[in-house]
Amino acid sequence: MNYVKYRKLKNSIFHGIIFCVTLIGIVILAILLIDIIRRGIPFLTKTFFTNFPSRFPNKAGILPGIVGSVNIILLTIAFAVPVGLGTAVYLEEYAKNNRLTKFIKINISNLSGTPSIVYGLLGLAVFVRVMGLGKSILSGALTMSLVVLPIVIVSSQEAIKAVPQYLRHGSYALGATKWQTIRKIVIPAALPGIFTGVILSVSRALGESAPLLMVGAATYVSKLPDSVFSVFTALPLQIYYWMGLPKEDFKDLAAAGIIVLLAILLTTNAITIVLRNKYQRSVE
Question: Which key words tag this protein in UniProt (predicted)?
Fold first, then answer.
């Protein structure tokens, strides 16, 4: 009886500590957000969104960073999602359940925790130098695809696993082939979970700066890219550049840039969540 009381007391203390730590984190986050909004809102003018970076804070804009981030994210999704989904389908539906398959799955899970700077070094060696793509948007997008690919694969695997077996058996009983079953039954049923993985990957890709710095992304760009081989910058790099400048007004510009980055992140997540809910209702 004393042991049971001890366990209950221990659990209560543990839950209390978790609650206090969570509450402190929420308060700190709220304070940071309030400070960023207070400092950044006055700089969210029309010129801020249409101008290029400048050494004068009142003339500086974030247009190249927005265009660069949007290009990187769209290309990253175009590269990572088909490859990640195809890999997940193969590992869950076609690959034999042997030691090699288990080894591959374990290593894919481990890669999702690899520091992004490692992918940056890989992108610098392979895409920039060996493939000769240079310090371009394409190099940055391919490198960022490596960063988010394990997340897409693992989340897609879990979504495919969650599809009930009776749906597959019913499809086979009606005479469908394995590929028809996967294409028309399994993937549509797994789409909500797949979209969750896309949300996580987009969120990570939007906030990453180390891989882009390694492949040669610029912190100061005076023109918009005209192709995927153009020099580029991104919102995190633009914010980093402003934070390093001595004038206090540039710190306020960085706060405005953080607000824009958060707005883009929330918008992309909202679109993905809407699509996920739509397909979830259609499956149900």
Answer: Cell membrane, Membrane, Transmembrane, Transmembrane helix, Transport
Domain shared by 39 and 67, yes or no: no
The one-letter code for the residue type at 191 is L
Nearest to 58 by CA among 212, 250, 226: 250
Residue 130 per-residue DSSP state: I
pTM above 0.70, yes or no: yes
- State the CB neighbour count (10 A cutoff) for residue 37: 15
Please check whether residue 197 is in contact with residue 107, taking contact to mean a CB–CB distance below 8 angstroms: no
Residue 123 maps to a domain: yes
What domain range is 39 assigned to? 2-43
26 and 96 part of one domain: no
